[in-house]
Amino acid sequence: MRRFSDLIDRLVYTRSRNAKVKLIADYLRATPDPDRGWALASLTGQLDLAAVKPALVKALIEERVDPELFRMSRNYVGDLAETCSLLWPEPPGRPTPVVVPPLGEVVETLKALPRGQGAATMTTLMDRLDVPGRYALIKLATGALRIGISARLAKTAFAQAFDVDVEEVEEIWHGLVPPYLPLFQWGEGHIERPRYDDIPVFRPFMLAHPLEDGAVDLTDYAAEWKWDGIRVQIARAGGETRLFSRTGDDITNSFPEVAEAMPIDAVLDGELLVRGTAQGNSAASFNALQQRLGRKAVSGAMLRDFPAFVRLYDVLYDGAQDLRGQPWTERRERLEAMMARLPGERFDLSGLIVAGDFAQLAALREGARDASIEGLMLKRRDSLYSAGRKVGLWYKWKRDPLVVDCVMMYAQRGSGKRSSFYSDYTFGCWSEDGTLLPVGKAYSGFTDAELKMLDGFVRNNTVAKFGPVREVTKSLVLEVAFDSVHRSKRHKSGVAMRFPRISRIRTDKPAEEADTLETLAKLITDPV
Amino acid sequence: MIGRGSHMPNMVTPGSWIKPFPQGIYVEPGDFWIDPSAPVDRALVTHGHADHARSGHKAVMATSGTLAIMAVRYGEAGVTQVADYGTQQRVGDVDVRFVPAGHVLGSAQIVLEHQGERVVVSGDYKRRPDPTCAPFEPVPCDIFVTEATFGLPVFRHPDTVDEIAKALATLADNPDRCVLIGAYALGKAQRVIMELRAAGHDAPIYLHGAMQKLCDLYREFGCDLGDLRPVTAQNKADLRGAIILCPPSALNDRWARALPDPVTAMASGWMRIRQRARQRNVELPLILSDHADWDELTQTIRQVDPGEVWITHGREDALLRWCALHQRRARALDLVGREDEDD
Ligand SMILES: [Zn+2]
Ligand SMILES: [Zn+2]
Predict the structure, then answer these.
(1) Judgement on whether residues A299 and A419 belong to the same structural domain of the protein
(2) Which ligand is closest in space to the CA of residue B186?
C-alpha cells in the first residue's frame, strides 16, 4: 500500500504527461503481483469498489474528532478523504516504522466486505496505515479515486515499463480481469501474448491524419464521406456482442438495439449514427446522437425517438479470420459481400465517392451540406489495417478547418440564469513536452441539455477548487470552433483564439488525442 | 463556558494593562508596543520576519539576532537596545524578559510582568529542534498570547528527517535535473541547508541572490552552512544534479526558466494540503514549518497552563474551539497583516 499511496501522491503533483508515464512505468516494474495489477486496475477505472459510503467515513472520524473541529478542517481542506487521512489519530502503541498492509490485501479485504462490517474493517485498516495510505484507502473504499489519469495513459505506461507495443496491450486488454496476472507474465516475457478468440475483445482502431496540404492521387486513394457520429467497433465472438468506442470503452449497454441485431461473429468498424422517423429517416447530425451518449440505461422512448445504426466502412475479422493483414481493397470487398448477412435497419455501408480528379473531389466536399457529413476520408487502397495513426495511409479532410479538439481544464460558474451551472470552460492543447496548456475559454455553443451534461461532468470530476473555479480531471475532449487564432504574449501557450465556442463534446475521444499546440499554431495566418 | 479565571472574581479583568489593537499589542504601563505594524516610539520585536519587524520605529528592543536581521533588511535603525535571552529589564512599570521561541535565529517570546501578573507574548514559535536557533522555553503564565498559523487539527508536521530524505531521494533519482526548493529567505532557507548538511549532503548548494545576505548573517552567528554558491547567469544552465534554494516567489518566475529542468519543491507547512501545493505548481512538497503544528500548539497551552489564551493570528476559530472543549478561557485578538503564506 505504501508504494501505491506514494504513486498516487506523486501523480497528483506531476504535471507533464511523460513524467506521469514514467512514474507509473517505474511503479509497475518495481511492484510485485498482485499489487501492481490492482493498482493498474484502479488507474484505468477497472476497480470500482465503492465498498463504503462517505457517510461511514465521516461517522468514523466524528467518533474520534470533535465534529466542530472536523467541520472546520473539512471546510479548509475541501476533500473528505484528505481531511480524514490527516485527522485520523495514530493508534497508541503502534510500532514504528508502521507495518503497512500491501495493496492486494487491502483490495481483497474491501472486496470481501460483508454487509454491515464496514466500520470495523475500515477502522482496522485506518489504524494500520499512515497519512498517504489512509488517503488512498478512503478513495479506494468509497470508489472515488480520481487522479486524472486516462486508461490509455496507464496502458502506455505498461507498454513503456515492459517494452511492448501499446496497441498489443489494447488488443488483449478487454480479455483480462484485474489483477491481470497473465498481462504481467507476458510483459516480463514468461509467456506468449494471451489470446482471446472466443470472447469479443477490443481491437485497436486504425486512425487518420488530418490532410494538411496538397492533393492525393485518387488512383492510390479511395474517398468516403466522414460521418458526424462516433467511431465504433462491433465485435462478436462466441455468440456474444460488444460495442467499443474510440477509447476502447465498452458502450454495449448504451446501444442494445445495435448489439442485439449483430447476427454473425465478426469485428466491424464504422460510424454510429442516429436515424429514425423524428430524423426524417436519414442519418442525423451528432446532436441527435448526443442524446444517447453516456447513458447507462436506455429508455423505450430513447430507443423509439433516437434509434441508432452503424454505417460500416471496414472489417477486421470475418468469423475467426483476421483480415487486418489484407489491403483495404480486399477488406472492402469482403465487407460489401457481408452486407447481405446484416440487417439493413441497423447496418448500412458507407459508400465510396466517385470523383474524376482531386479538384472535383474538393468541389464535392465544399458542396456537401448534409448535417451528418463532417468532411472526407481518404484511404490508401493498399493500406493494411494497422493500429494507431500511421503516416500516409488514411487522411481525414474536415469541412471546417478552424476546429480543434481541446481538453477541458477548468470550469467556472456562469452568471445570471446560469449561476448554478459551471458554464465557462477553459480548455487546453498539448505542448511538446506533454503538458496541457490553456488556449482559450468558451461559454457558448452547447444546448441546454449539453450544458447539464458538462455541469455534471465538472461536478463529478473536480480535482481542485479555487473560489468559483474548479479544476477538473484532464479527460474530457471538447471540439472547439473559432473564427481565427493569433499569436499572444499574454498567454503561456503563446496563442489566443477569436470567438471560440464549444462545437461538440467528444466523449468518444481520449484526452491524449486532443490536438497539440503545434496543430493549433499552424492555423495562425498572421504575418510573423 | 467555565473559565479558569473564575476563581478570582474580585480582581480587575486579567491583562487589562495589555491593549490589543489591530496594528499590534500596546503595553500601557511600559508605554511600548510589541511587533507593531506601523512606526511607533518604542517597539519590542519578537523576531525578524517582516510581519513582526517593521522599519521606522524610533526605538527598538530585541535580541541581538533580531536586531542584526533588521539591520540587514532595513539598514540602520533608530535607538536599539539588545535584550539577552533570560535577562530581565525594566521598561516603564513593566519587567520584561526575552525567552527563546525556537522559530528563527533570534526569535523570542516576550515575558511581561506587572503588578504580580505574568503575560507571555509568544510571537511565532515551534517546538521541534532547529539547528539554527535556541529551542522554545515554556514559561508558565497567567495569559499566553499565542499564534495559531497552523491552528487546525489537520496540521501535523511530519518528521523533518523524512522530509529532507525525500528531497535527497528526488535529487538522486533525477541526476539530469536540479531540485529547486522554495524556502522563506529568513530562517527556513538556513534550516533546510543545515538539515541537508546533517543528512550528509556535502555538495555545493546554490542560492538565489535574495538569500545570500541572510545566509552570511547566519554564518556570523555560528551556523556552518557549508559550501554555498550563487546562481549566476553563467552557471544557471549547468546546475544538473544540484540543490538550489530560492524564495517561494521565484519558483514560478522567469528566473527559474533557465535552470536545467528543475524539480519544483517547496519547504512549508502549507505543503501538508495537496491543494496548496498544487496551487504553487509544486512537484515535491516538503512539509517543513517554522511554526508550531496543532499538537505543538495544544501541548504548549497545556504546558504553560495559562488562565487565559489570547490568539494573535492564524486559524483562531479552531484553537478557540479546542480551548472551549478543554475549559480554557480564550479570545481572538484579530491582529492585522500577520498571515504567513509562505512559511
Ligand atoms: Zn515568523
Ligand atoms: Zn508571524
Answers:
(1) no
(2) 1
Tell whether the model's pLDDT for residue A528 goes beyond 80. no
A217 and A307 together in one domain:
yes
The domain that contains A138 carries what CATH number? 1.10.3260.10
Looking at the whole model, is its pTM more than 0.90? Answer: no
- Report CA(B15)–ligand 1 centroid distance (Å): 24
Judge: B322–A68 Cβ closer than 8 Å, yes or no.
no
Number of C-beta neighbours around residue A337 at 10 A: 11
- Is A417 catalytic? The answer is no
Q: Each residue of A469-497: pLDDT tens digit?
A: 899 999 999 999 987 787 877 778 888 88
Through-space distance between the first and last CA atoms of chain B, rounded to whole angstroms: 34
Are A362 and A506 in a shared domain?
Answer: no
Pairing between β-strand A266-274 and β-strand A403-413 as defined by DSSP bridges = unpaired
DSSP H helices, A142-206, are 151-162, 166-173, 181-187
In a domain, A154, yes or no: no
Catalytic residue among A20, A139, A155, A226: A226
Task: Looking at the structure, tell me whether residues A113 and A20 fall in a common domain.
Answer: yes
What one-character DSSP code corresponds to residue A346? T
Q: Which of A70-79, A235-244, B248-257 has the lowest mean pLDDT?
A: B248-257
**What's the helix, strand, coil split of chain B in %, to 5?**
30, 25, 45
**Nearest residue in B to A87, CA atom:** B154
Give the mean pLDDT of B98-113: 98
DSSP for residue B231: -
Interface-testing mutation among A62, A85, A86, with chain B (most B C-beta atoms within 10 A)? A86
CB atoms closer than 10 angstroms to residue A508 = 21
How close does chain A come to B179, measured CA to CA in Å?
A: 14
Burial A264-303, CB ≥16 within 10 A → b, else e: ebbbbbbbbbbbbeebeeebbbbebbbebbeeeebeeebe
Q: Structural domain of residue A409, as residue ranges?
A: 402-521
Cα A425 from chain centre: 19
Residues with CB under 5 A from ligand 1 (ion): B 49, 124
Number of A–B residue contacts, CB under 8 Å: 58
pLDDT of residue A525: 63
Instruction: Indicate if A238 and A354 belong to the same structural domain.
Output: yes
- A76 vs B154: CB contact, 8 Å cut-off? yes
Cell of B201: 549532503
Question: Complex ipTM, two decimals?
Answer: 0.93
A149 domain residue, yes or no: no
**Distance between Cα B115 and ligand 2 center (Å):** 29
Task: Give residue B49 CA to ligand 2 midpoint distance, Å.
Answer: 7
- For residue A76, list chain B residues with Cβ-Cβ distance below 8 A: 152, 154, 273, 315
**Pair (A409, A378) in one structural domain:** no
Run of H or E including B88: strand B88-91
Asked if residue A199 belongs to a domain, the reply is no
**Same domain as A388, residue A415:** no
Among A358, A373, A398, give the residue marking a domain's end.
A398
pLDDT digits (tens, 9 = 90+) for A179-213: 999 999 999 999 999 988 788 989 999 999 988 77
Identify the bridge partners of residue B89 per DSSP, sorted by sequence position: B96
Q: Tell me phi and psi for residue A188, to 5 degrees.
A: -85, 5
Whether residues A266 and A352 share a domain: the answer is: yes
Closest residue in B to A80 (Cα) is: B154
Give the closest residue to B335 by CA, choosing from B79, B105, B25. B25
Angle between helices A151-162 and A17-30 (to 10 degrees): 60
Integer Cα distance of B246 and A328 in angstroms = 59
The verdict on a CB contact (< 8 Å) between A72 and B318 is yes
Ligand 2 centroid to residue B313 C-alpha, Å: 8
* Residue of A8, A11, A13 to mutate, testing the B interface (most B Cβ within 10 Å of its Cβ): A13
Task: Please count the structural domains in chain A.
Answer: 3
